[in-house]
Amino acid sequence: MLRLLHTADVHLGARHADLGDAASAQRERQFAAFRTSVDLAIAEKVDLFLVAGDLFDSNVQPRRSVERVAAELARLAQARIRSVLIPGTHDVYDRSSVYRAYDLPALAGTRPAEEMVTILAPERPWIHLPSLDVVVHGPVFATKRAPHSPLRDLAAAETPAATWRIGLLHASISIPGRTEHDEVVVTLDEIGASGLDYLALGHWHSAQSSKAKGVAYAYSGAPEPVAVDQDRAGKVLLVTLEERDGAKAVAIDERVVGELARLAQARIRSVLIPGTHDVYDRSSVYRAYDLPALAGTRPAEEMVTILAPERPWIHLPSLDVVVHGPVFATKRAPHSPLRDLAAAETPAATWRIGLLHASISIPGRTEHDEVVVTLDEIGASGLDYLALGHWHSAQSSKAKGVAYAYSGAPEPVAVDQDRAGKVLLVTLEERDGAKAVAIDERVVGRTSFVSLDVDAATVASQPALIDMLRATADPDQVLDVRLIGVRPDTLDLEPLEVEQTLKAAYLRVRVRDASRPALTEGALPPAETIAGAFIRSVEGRIADLEASGDDPAQREAVELRDALRLGRLLLAGQEVTL
Questions:
Q1: What CA–CA distances, in Å, run from 52 to 155, 187, 213?
Q2: Distance of CA 353 to CAs 272, 325, 328, 375, 520, Å?
Q3: pTM across the whole model
Q4: Residue range of the domain that includes 177
Q5: What is the total count of domains within the chain?
Q6: Where are the beta strands (DSSP E) in 26-140?
Q7: Phi, psi of 346 (to 5 degrees)
Q8: What angle do CA 489, 490, 492 make, to 5 degrees?
């Protein structure tokens, strides 16, 4: 028996220009779907992981994106699951191919002899995996448009004997009047004559399968939809090939991996509201795309619900809850979204949950915010819990008995959001006739924030500081370094140069020099000398300024300390950097 996971058309790195501010979130959903596909392959202990083209949306990819893919392939290799990939029409195997620019098997930490990760190419159109008793054919071309059918010579290919022959193609199946302009096309007759046991196809983004003269073939579809009409996307295929009573059999099992679809499949209901970046105006992404349909849910199920001005609440009888999500069709709210909530006529339910994207009023700070509510309005809302969005740092409290919380952004959007990277698990229950709300913060983000104070007296040189910071390099870390204490005269350090040198080692690094040059230690030169007169004059002025306690005076004292340091070095005949 041979078990495969078949996926295609992940389109990692897609620009999604039509989604505006939501584009980056959709790119992350696409990567999450790929990661979930790997999770499924490992959980199901498959033998082979197949990608039938267009893993990447284009050949122009930053190294970090390729490394993320390589990390997932490495997970498969560690689980002893072999991966075989082919280029598609978006990541075509031309001279600028991402597969030429990067050595994916090496980035995944595998050795060539192991053949745990294989990229099929024009010069290598098939691979024999003796341990699995299979030959995988992946005929591809070095041009986007195929010069002929990739199946033309497949049946005659001289390959080692094996029980199973699998095909891997990125192509359309010929449909007269529709596919004449497609780049790569095969016919059902060619599939039927291929001699394959299973043909794993990519290019069409909706999952579908059939047979051609006994040869099973299937499109896995895209694991996360790339366009609005792809209602059969969000899936991968688990394929089992086995011999039964001397005959070969192929079983194809569709599995959902799209994020909202995964929730629906687990019978977890989702309720979403637009915010101020994805506002529910005429160009709203929620008007352009039918998210519930893309998640493969039916309207009557109400597994995925988008609240909108025309539908400000939803009653979920099975959960005994009403969720209120008053939103507007404009970015700036005409009034508080909580104004009419307490008087809203909704079905009776034990629990009333609010869902808002708004600021809580802070005099002098929130007057220009688009949507604002007050603590008094929250307290008078009659809600059991108010789930808030807009502030990116996690925080929670109560207003007149009503629990409310900001979950914060699950991944920081700016480098000062050190309370981001979380979601909230909220439990509502009745205890002794009274309602109780428990809020549990859970970390989901990868970004970490580290503040580091370094005593300047312990730093020998700028290269030594760089080496020390590079030793703890982390591309997911925002590092804020502050030099403190008394700085030796010989320490020549430029914070901007340190930041530039470490730029690739951290997500972001900031270096601030808050250290102070030392006053003169030991015996002073005679007062009648230039050095003696200079030191006494400057240090006297520094003492007066530091004793005043005035902010401008303190700033001048800092500048004079540096002037004193430079003067001492120059008078000692040493070179200085200005």
A1: 19, 17, 22
A2: 13, 9, 18, 16, 66
A3: 0.57
A4: 2-256
A5: 3
A6: 48-52, 82-86, 117-119, 126-129, 134-137
A7: -130, 160
A8: 105
Q: Rounded CA gap, 467 and 469, in Å?
A: 6
Q: Where are the beta strands (DSSP E) in 87-234?
A: 117-119, 126-129, 134-137, 164-170, 172-173, 185-186, 198-202, 208-212, 215-219
Q: List all residues 6 or more positions away from 568 whose beta carbon is below 8 Å from its beta carbon.
A: 489, 520, 531, 535
46 within domain boundaries:
yes
Alpha-helical runs (H) found in 275-429: 285-288, 291-294, 375-379
Q: Which residues of 340-363 are buried (b: 16+ CB within 10 A; e: fewer)?
A: ebeeeeeeebebbbbbbbbbbbee
Q: Is the pLDDT of residue 229 over 60?
A: no
577 falls within a domain: no
Distance (Å, whole) CA 235 – CA 228: 15
145: helix, coil or strand?
Answer: coil
Single-letter code of the amino acid located at 564: L
Q: If 0-12 CB within 10 Å is exposed, 13-18 middle and 19+ buried, where does residue 507 land?
A: middle
Burial class (CB in 10 A: 0-12, 13-18, 19+), 490: exposed
Q: What confidence tens digit (pLDDT) does each residue in 373-386 have?
A: 999 999 999 999 99
38-58 pLDDT, tens per residue?
999 998 999 999 999 999 999
The CATH number linked to 151 is 3.60.21.10
- Does one domain contain both 66 and 192? yes
